[in-house]
Amino acid sequence: MEKSHGKKMQKDLDVLESRINALEASTADGFQKSLLGVLKGMVQNQRHLIDESDHLRKAIDLITLQIFKVEGRLD
């Protein structure tokens, strides 16, 4: 279930970034462009955090499997 949640979040972030890009392309105001650039950076950082949490979750799963294997050998 968590994997689909992560994919949904990624899809939502893709949609949000597309909207920000469209707004950025349609505005001529420097302040608005700067603000949209900050928002885009925040979206990209959020995407990176989601990717990193997926990697950490996989690493924890692998470590847990190794612990169970070692415990099985000790019994």
Tell me what you see in this structure.
It is built from two helices and no strands. It has 75 residues and is an all-alpha fold. The protein has one domain. The longest helix has 45 residues, at 30-74. The protein is rod-shaped and about 70 Å long. It starts with a helix and ends with a helix. The model has no long low-confidence stretch (mean pLDDT 91).
Low-confidence runs? none
What is the CA-atom radius of gyration, in angstroms?
Answer: 20 Å
Distance between the termini: 33 Å
Query: What is the quaternary state of this protein?
Result: single chain
Count, helices: 2
Mean pLDDT: 91
Helix content: over 70%
Number of strands: 0
What's the number of domains?
1
Order of helices and strands: HH
| Morphology call | rod-shaped
| Percent range for β-strand residues | under 5%
Largest sheet: none
Structural class determined from secondary elements: mainly alpha
